[in-house]
Specification:
Layout: E1 2-3, H1 7-16, E2 19-22, E3 29-30, E4 33-34, H2 38-47, E5 51-54, H3 63-72, E6 85-89, H4 92-100, E7 105-107, E8 130-135, H5 143-153, E9 159-162, E10 168-170, E11 175-177, H6 179-190, E12 195-196, H7 202-211, E13 219-223, H8 226-235, E14 239-243, H9 250-253, E15 266-268, H10 275-280
Parallel strand pairs: 1-15, 2-5, 2-13, 6-7, 6-8, 8-9, 9-12, 13-14, 14-15
Antiparallel strand pairs: 3-4, 10-11
Helix pairs in contact: 5-6
Bound molecules: 4-phospho-D-erythronate (DEZ) and magnesium ion.
Cofactor: Mg(2+)
Catalytic activity: 4-nitrophenyl phosphate + H2O = 4-nitrophenol + phosphate + H(+)
GO molecular function: alkaline phosphatase activity; metal ion binding; phosphoglycolate phosphatase activity
Length: 285
């Protein structure tokens, strides 16, 4: 693991990597606040003709909504172009993505399920067409949604899919429970383990590879979390750069029991540190 310190260290990255995969929460932004210098660095990388891909586990927004968020924050980004019903624990992000893929869904933001009234199983008629429960970060999670999802999951033929297993996430003002923590009660109740599609699982990388051509040896994954971003990059044979603006702290890195597949190749306090290249111009330009 190399701490990036000098101008030469950052220059080396520019020379060595053509494809840069960026985690979002904790790397590009915290909630609605951009990490200082992030835009300048992204713009600089674009000027250097680097291929930039955003890889987030946060399913509260669809790719279209992320595009709007990127636009609002002034970050240039392009949306990647893409039969039974799905019961959703999550927000509009999952709903819009399912709709785009042609799936009908229940739950999610439906006001009927966003209630704090006690759940009465005798009043519940399961939809026999539900073939999957998809669970992601849901900031309005409640007992009714858990009860309905659990009823569907009692049928082993009903798929159980999680967008990610992140325990926490950096939410602007502080660290909050993440998608994995929302999913945990369902795992306990159903005694089932979901298929998790987000980082560090290779499903996400397979989807990216289906849309983008890149050489793993000339690619780098930039993230704020060892057990998702860094493990994801290493599994895919990419180089990895950890920033300390999100979940993983300097103290965490000093632990002696970090598994080998989670040790990043490089560490720098913030993505904004790469501004050193912008101000002086890269030796590679
Ligand atoms: O639980 C979640 O959804 C995630 O922890 C979180 O939002 C991750 O976002 P990322 O850091 O992958 O952009
Ligand atoms: Mg993150």
């Amino acid at each position: 693991m190399q701490n990036l310190i000098s101008r030469e260290d950052y220059d080396r990255l520019i020379l060595d990597y053509d494809t840069w995969l960026f985690d979002c929460d904790g790397v590009i932004w915290h909630g609605d606040h951009l990490i200082e210098g992030a835009i300048e660095v992204l713009n600089y990388l674009r000027r250097q003709k680097k291929h930039i891909i955003f890889v987030t586990n946060n399913a509260t927004k669809s790719r279209q909504s992320y595009k709007k968020k990127f636009d609002k924050l002034g970050v240039q980004a392009d949306v990647l172009p893409k039969n039974k019903k799905v019961y959703v624990i999550g927000e509009t992000g999952i709903e819009e993505e399912l709709a785009e893929e042609g799936y009908q869904y229940l739950g999610g933001t439906d006001p009927e399920d966003n209630t704090l009234k006690p759940f009465k199983i005798e009043n519940f008629t399961p939809d026999l067409d539900v073939g999957a429960v998809v669970c992601g970060l849901d900031t309005s999670i409640n007992y009714t949604k858990y009860c309905k999802a659990y009823q569907y999951l009692r049928n082993n033929d009903c798929l159980f899919v999680a967008t990610n297993e992140d325990s926490t996430y950096p939410a602007g003002g502080g660290i909050l429970p993440g998608g994995g923590s929302i999913m945990a009660p369902l795992v306990l109740a159903s005694k089932r383990k979901p298929v998790a599609t987000g980082k560090p699982n290779t499903t996400m990388l397979d989807c990216i590879r289906a849309k983008h051509n890149f050489d793993p040896k000339r690619s780098i994954m930039i993230g704020d979390r060892l057990e998702t971003d860094i493990e994801f990059g290493k599994k895919g044979g990419l180089s990895t750069l950890l920033v300390l603006t999100g979940i993983t702290s300097k103290e965490d890195l000093q632990q002696s029991d970090i598994p080998q597949d989670r040790i990043p190749d490089f560490v720098t306090p913030s993505l904004g540190d790469l501004r050193i290249l912008v101000s002086k111009g890269s030796s590679s330009s």
